[in-house]
Every structure is written in C-alpha cells, then in structure tokens.
Amino acid sequence: MIIFKSINKLKEKVNIMANIGFVPTMGSLHKGHIALIKISKQRCNKTLVSIFVNPSQFNKKTDYRKYPRNLNNDLKILKKLKVDYVLVPKIKDIYKTKKQMKIKLKKKDKVLCSKCRPGHFEGVLGVISIFLKNIRAKFMFLGNKDFQQVYLVKKYLGKKFKTKIINCKTIRFKNSLAYSSRNKLLTKKYLNNGIAISKIIKNFHYKITKDFSKIKEIENIRYKISNICSQIEYLEIRNKNNLTTNINKKNFKIFIAYYLGNIRLIDNF
Fold this sequence. Notes:
three-stranded antiparallel β-sheet; 10 helices; alpha/beta; Pantoate--beta-alanine Ligase, Chain: A,domain 2; Rossmann fold; 2 domains; six-stranded parallel β-sheet
C-alpha cells in the first residue's frame, strides 16, 4: 500500500490511465466503506482510496471540527484490505484556487438535504470534480446511503469526466440502521433509537410496495418517529429517478434526515 499526501505526487507515481477504481471517503471508515473497497478490488486492477474531510461541505465549523477522525485506524483497515493507493491530501492541496468551486445547483435540485444544508452539495460536487479532474480513474464507487449525493454527482459530473460512477447498495447495522461515520458519535441509547427509526421507515416502505394508498400514512409515521428522535429535519417521499414529487408504486423512495441529540443522520428506503 502506497500513501500519497498530495495529488501531484500521486500523478507522478501512478499510471492514471490504468484500470483504477476510486473510493472517495472522509475517513472514519466503517463497513459501508469496506464494501465499496471490496467491490472496487473485484472490478479493477488497482484501487485508490482518498481520505479527506472536506470543509466546504460543512454548514457549521463546529460540525466540521467534531467530525470523527482516526487516520491511524483507517490506514490499518486499508492495509488489511490490501488497498493499492491511499490519498491523504491537505486542504491547501485540494483548494489551490477558488476558481475550482463554481458548481451551482439548479433550483429544482434544491430539495431534501440541499434545501436544509445550503452550499453542502456545491461543496461535495466541487471536491469530487477536483478529484476526478486529477485522478481520472476508470470507476468511482459511491454508496446509496447518500442517495441524493450520488444522484447529483451523476447529474452534474457524469458527463464532464470519463470516470464511470457506480452506486452500490447501502450496508446496514442489524439489518436496519445504515452504517455512517457519525454513528460513532452516538450513545448506546441514541444508537438504539436510530435502529428503531430505520425499522419504522423500512416497514413503511414495505407497506407502500404492497398497497400504494398506504403512502397517506406518512404523517402517522412522522409522529411515531418524532417521539424517538430529537428533531425530524425532513421526511419525504420522492421519485428516485429525478427527486421530484411525481411518484408511483415503482419509482418512490422514502427520504429522512433527523437528529439524535445534536447528531444528524440521513437514510432512505
């Protein structure tokens, strides 16, 4: 495993035209990340993992500072997985000029997390574009837990780069709560609450697949979840193909963002 601390060093040493799979992360690795890495290793000759906590996608400086970090443990995990290359760049290496941050969302895409977290996805798209411009991997692997993120990356960056964006299934804890780095910040009580909330959404999704009229019960679901969490930021049912509210039995997906204490979690079924 070779560790690079700058993109330029990576470009100097690695044949970027090779069959490379890229897994971008913010570190604090968990089973969701590991699943993406294993898929990349199966499909590609070489696998590159980046670890970069991107400041431009955080709405609050306190949230950025509190984001869980454990680089030494992450590197141990990656070494055990026999990852070929790891990129751990500095902020100044990524953001050499503000001209690199010009991606703006269209009004119709400012829904769900992009509505609640202004500038968040502009930050995500900006850093991903910098990575893809420099790395030019054959494939990039992203998890469906961040479904809206994958949708926007494909929509805004899919045609700008030759890298094929592959979305992979959400990996879940105890068949319910999605793995997330933020889960590491939860107390045992909040973790159990998160598991309960995911089960409620999962069961609600199942009911709708059997009887689409059950969609009307969303307010009951909202009330049930509100008794378990600290705050519901949004609970919406949208078209999984375009994130509009034009839904039917085949295209619907349930999206939720909620707080357990001061920890924000998202999920979708």
